[in-house]
Amino acid sequence: MARVKTRVDFDVVIAGAGPAGAWALKHLPEGTRALLVDAANPLESSRGGKLCGGMLTAQAQALLPELPSEARAEPFKTKLEYHDLDTGARARFPVDYANCYRGSLDRWLLRQALETRGSGVDYLPRTRVTGLQPENGAVRVRLNDEREVTASRFLDCTGWRQASRRALGVPAAPYYHALQAECALSSPYPYYISVFASEWTPFFGWFIPKSESLGEIGAAFESDRRDPPGGMLAPLVEHLRQYGLEFKLGRIRGCRLTRPGKASDIWLGQGRVLACGEAAGMVSPSSGDGISYALASGKAAARTVGLPVKPALAEYRGALAPQLAELRRNIVKARLLANRRARRIAGMLLPFIQRGNFERLSL
Ligand SMILES: Cc1cc2nc3c(=O)[nH]c(=O)nc-3n(C[C@H](O)[C@H](O)[C@H](O)COP(=O)(O)OP(=O)(O)OC[C@H]3O[C@@H](n4cnc5c(N)ncnc54)[C@H](O)[C@@H]3O)c2cc1C
């Protein structure tokens, strides 16, 4: 007996309205009936929004129109200071990051996407996807208000929560436990700082100026570290104060930072479910950059929505080939950065790589 196809309410349900979800929505084929749900509401998020350093890589900048003034943090472009407490190296050199306020960025991305789609989208803020069930040519999506909807496709853009992996029994990607706090600066400091110190972080710690009087301080730790956040950040805070930064630390917030350790930690989906951005595990394990991957994958997934299931996944993977290759290189880079000997060698090579732009700082 032929199976009766489930009647679909939407062509696509997008879960998560962060950069991946907003960029997926914006790039859907004309006429797609879409439902966008978000557990929170990025349109209302405070200036801080999602816990993030707000650094846009060159790849992220290339995928975006010019940022509006409210999303630009100052200095918008500046140099990076590298402090290696293991090897004693300290240097300053240019990087191609742009500095933004993450909450404002997310609001701007989502507003653009909703304006582009106009009446072709239903947006449900403060609505969480709690379950997924593939069935007869559709996906049944359970929402936290007991409602169920059906769709031909499901795009998982739920960030580190990775809703579809949970629902389909796919193992979660490994992650760091990241902490970050705003700090009120007594005097401006115009450079980004990254601090490597294997005694207290397997990743690195950071300071990011946001204005003359505001900065962000953060670091990432092993996923099982659960000591009081103040104590975990204390060595970084102490180092920055000894270095001469004067600031008052605000409330420390924490969340997962996905960290693929091998290529198979990145999962692009199966059947009618595609995973985008951090939900796919697409975060650079060497730098923590995830916004560029979220934008690129959201856009690529949207473009496959009208295709049959198998070609859609193949097309999606093909479109992301440059990002997947970059992530594989970054997995290797992360292993090298975690090794103080490799960092010592990199420190010796940096002046040649950076040529005239490299400034060695005194200890
Ligand atoms: C401390 C820290 C610093 C970082 N700094 C940088 C940086 O400087 N530059 C950079 O490029 N990247 C940075 N990242 C990584 C970057 O923030 C993420 O990779 C990026 O936000 C991923 O975007 P996304 O759209 O995939 O997910 P998110 O931005 O996390 O968006 C996910 C959305 O899904 C919603 N959601 C979650 N679960 C559900 C559900 N079940 N149903 C419906 N909605 C749901 C959430 O409310 C959220 O709005 C940092 C991360 C951390 C933790």
Assign the CATH topology: FAD/NAD(P)-binding domain
Secondary-structure element order, as H and E?
A: EHEEHEEEHEEEEHEEEEHEEEHHHHE
CATH architecture: 3-Layer(bba) Sandwich
Strand content: 25-35%
How would you classify the quaternary structure?
Answer: single chain
CATH evolutionary superfamily: FAD/NAD(P)-binding domain
Quickly name the level 1 CATH class: Alpha Beta
The backbone outline, from C-alpha atoms, is: elongated
Cα distance spanning the termini? 78 Å
Helix content: 25-40%
Overall mean confidence score, pLDDT: 94
Cofactors, ions and other ligands in the entry? flavin-adenine dinucleotide
Q: What's a quick, concise take on this entry?
A:
This protein is an alpha/beta fold.
Task: Write the topology of this structure.
Blueprint: E1 10-15, H1 19-26, E2 34-37, E3 55-56, H2 58-63, E4 79-84, E5 90-94, E6 98-99, H3 102-117, E7 121-124, E8 129-135, E9 138-143, E10 148-156, H4 163-168, E11 175-185, E12 192-196, E13 205-209, E14 214-221, H5 229-243, E15 247-258, E16 269-270, E17 273-275, H6 291-302, H7 309-319, H8 321-337, H9 340-354, E18 359-360
Parallel strand pairs: 1-2, 1-10, 2-7, 4-12, 10-17
Antiparallel strand pairs: 3-6, 4-5, 5-18, 8-9, 9-10, 11-14, 11-15, 12-13, 13-14, 16-17
Helix pairs in contact: 1-3, 1-6
Structure write-up:
The strands form 3 sheets. Strands 1, 2, 7, 8, 9, 10, 16 and 17 form an 8-stranded mixed β-sheet that branches. Strands 15-11-14-13-12-4-5-18 form an 8-stranded mixed β-sheet, with helices on both faces. Strands 3-6 form a two-stranded antiparallel ribbon. The chain has helices spanning 19-26, 58-63, 102-117, 163-168, 229-243, 291-302, 309-319, 321-337, 340-354, and strands at 10-15, 34-37, 55-56, 79-84, 90-94, 98-99, 121-124, 129-135, 138-143, 148-156, 175-185, 192-196, 205-209, 214-221, 247-258, 269-270, 273-275, 359-360. It contains 9 helices and 18 strands. With 363 residues, it is α/β, with parallel strands linked by helices. The longest helix has 17 residues, at 321-337. The protein is elongated. Helix 1 (19-26) runs parallel beside helix 3 (102-117) and helix 1 packs parallel to helix 6. The protein has a single domain (10-346), classed as 3-Layer(bba) Sandwich (FAD/NAD(P)-binding domain), CATH 3.50.50.60. The structure holds flavin-adenine dinucleotide. Residues 15-21, 37-40, 42, 50-55, 128-129, 157-159, 161, 163, 178, 180, 218, 255, 257, 277-279, 283, 288-291, 294 line the site of flavin-adenine dinucleotide.
